[in-house]
Design a protein that fits this description.
The complex is a heterodimer of chains A (115) and B (109). Chain A is mainly β and 115 residues long. In chain A, 0% of the residues lie in helices and 50% in strands. In chain A, the strands form two sheets. In chain A, strands 2, 4, 5, 6, 9, 10 and 11 form a seven-stranded mixed sheet that branches. Chain A is globular. Chain B is mainly beta. Chain B is built from no helices and nine strands. Classes of the chains: A mainly beta (115), B mainly beta (109).
């Protein structure tokens, strides 16, 4: 069964450093997402991406965050200067179409620890 | 997304059916009802979704009330691996899902 894959599974970084989290969405999917989950809290929407541009973003997704689809397969989340409060599990997701009957598939997550 | 209400927690015994309820009284006629679950330290996993009719797949069944103000996720025979947080989501925008607190399901051996 096709799946969304994420790397790295776990990364520890110093505060102020840049971090890039990588995702390979399901191959024929057109819509891509990043979510995050701080330990013990809800899964929160960060950003959605379609046709090489951001289609929606949350208040969390400030200027420190950026997303990119550098080639036909990868989808990345960059955090420019990490803060302690960025420590969380980050989930990439993708879906084939925007219709709400289409399923969103999630990856296993990248656990980011900022020290 | 439509507001949904779920119990914070439920318990079941292994090999017994589990009925997880969800209220979504503000759901509109075109909002799909999605169910996801999340095991510890894993990403949300798709379980099932539906619009008006009851739905079945290999994981579960989804029973949707005729007025669509509520639905029930049915796990026919709970296993220990079904212990997870179950999220009921009424999707409006077609562009993202909004997760609530969900229902923590405990399965007793």
């Amino acid at each position: 069964e096709p799946e969304v894959t994420q790397t790295p599974s776990h990364q520890v970084t110093q505060m102020g450093q840049e971090v890039i989290l990588r995702c390979v969405p399901i191959s024929n999917h057109l819509y891509f997402y990043w979510y995050r989950q701080i330990l013990g809290q809800k899964v929160e929407f960060l950003v959605s991406f379609y046709n090489n541009e951001i289609s929606e973003k949350s208040e969390i997704f400030d200027d420190q965050f950026s997303v990119e689809r550098p080639d036909g397969s990868n989808f990345t989340l960059k955090i420019r200067s990490t803060k302690l409060e960025d420590s969380a599990m980050y989930f990439c997701a993708s879906r084939a179409g925007s219709h709400s009957g289409n399923t969103i598939y999630f990856g296993e997550g990248s656990w980011l620890t900022v020290v | 997304d439509a507001k949904t209400t779920q119990p914070n927690s439920m318990e079941s015994n292994e090999e017994e059916p589990v009925h997880l309820p969800c209220n979504h009284s503000t759901i509109s006629g075109t909002d799909y009802i999605h169910w996801y679950r999340q095991l510890p330290s894993q990403g949300p996993e798709y379980v099932i979704h539906g619009l008006t009719s009851n739905v079945n797949n290999r994981m579960a069944s989804l029973a949707i009330a005729e007025d669509r103000k509520s639905s029930t996720l049915i796990l026919h025979r709970a296993t220990l691996r079904d212990a997870a947080v179950y999220y009921c989501i009424g999707e409006t925008s077609g562009s993202r899902l909004t997760f609530g607190e969900g229902t923590q399901l405990t399965v007793n051996p």
